[in-house]
Amino acid sequence: MTQVGMAGGNTALKLARLVALATPLALLGGAYIGQFAFGLFPCEMCWWQRYAHFTALGLALVALFLRESRAILGLAAFAIAVSGLIGGYHAGVEYGWWQGFTACTSTVAASADPLAAIMNAPLIRCDVAPWDLLGVSLAGWNFLFSGAAALAIAVLLLRSRETAR
To answer: Domain 11-164 maps to which CATH number in 1.10.287, 1.20.1550, 1.10.1740, 1.10.3470?
Structure first.
């Protein structure tokens, strides 16, 4: 029988909770550091990936305090997987493997002359990777990390279910 709260449950369930919480926190944190510290502004598809991680983060936080949190963690894993799949699609657009179906976006900073701010705003293209590491774009890294995390959560949830029997 599991206990209430973070301290409750078997080891696999605790680890699933940790992965479900740490993954969106780390990836969203990295995205915002890139944006505000290094000027890597998000395109439209980047935002789609973030929305899925925001959802996963909320679900993971709820799961921390529920006695029976497997279903909520399963939804968090699904949201993380959705972000990863969007990241995989986005990476394919960046690498030119297929054409995207989204318009480019821009970021407008507040200024005394709104028209000048709009006209001088940087155009954020979805089909150009603004940064990469080892030839893998940020969207590609999201695909890899999110896919691995979603799979890990699913495996841990299956193990926690077997242990609970």
So the answer is: 1.20.1550
